[in-house]
Each structure stands twice: as C-alpha cells, then as structure tokens.
Amino acid sequence: QVQLVESGGGLVQAGGSLRLSCVPSGRTFRTYTMGWFRQAPGKEREFVAAVNWSGGNTYYADSVKGRYTISRDNAKNTVYLQMNSLKPEDTAVYYCAVTPRADGRSGYVYWGQGTQVTVSS
Question: Nearest 5°: phi and psi at 32?
C-alpha cells in the first residue's frame, strides 16, 4: 500500500521558518514529479510547489516564490519544502503528492494525509 507521510508542520510566528518533509512508503517515486499543495479553512486546495524527478526543475506558486524552496533527496526517498518568511496567510494544511507529469501541475495520483502549518501574527 502506497503512503505519503508528511512531517514538520507546527505553529510558528510570522517571519519564522519551517521545513516540511514527505517520505513515501510502499514504493519509490524516483522518476515522478513530487509536489506540495495546501488548503486553508474555507478555501480550495491550491498548488504550492513541485520538483521534477532529478531535482533540476522546480515550480512555484506566485504567492510563495522567493520564500519557499522545494527539494528532494532521491537517496533518502524524501522531498522537502523549506518555508521562510512565513505569513499568517500561509496557514493551511500542507499535502505532499506525486505525479508522473513532468510539469507538476496536474495528474497527481497519490496524496499524503497532510500536516498543519499555523502562522501567528
């Protein structure tokens, strides 16, 4: 059974940082694009960032460009989301997901359960 397990969420003050991790189990996704999404209360889930299989190509939502960095370590089968200069509007449940599409914008087939990120003002 394939699972994506996120960790690293928590409560942080505005301007602070957090690093999220996602570790798949049940199989590896070394040839897949891995992404992060988030869903705030009362809002639709939105794309945050994605990284291709090699880590050479990354994609970001405009709202997080320059503040967030996505990376992956295929040897550890882990994808990371470094979040800096956090704002209260970044508060959401963050989800890890994988897609076979290189552009990382659609086609996500597996999803994690999510990790809560709360940014206080």
Answer: -105, 155
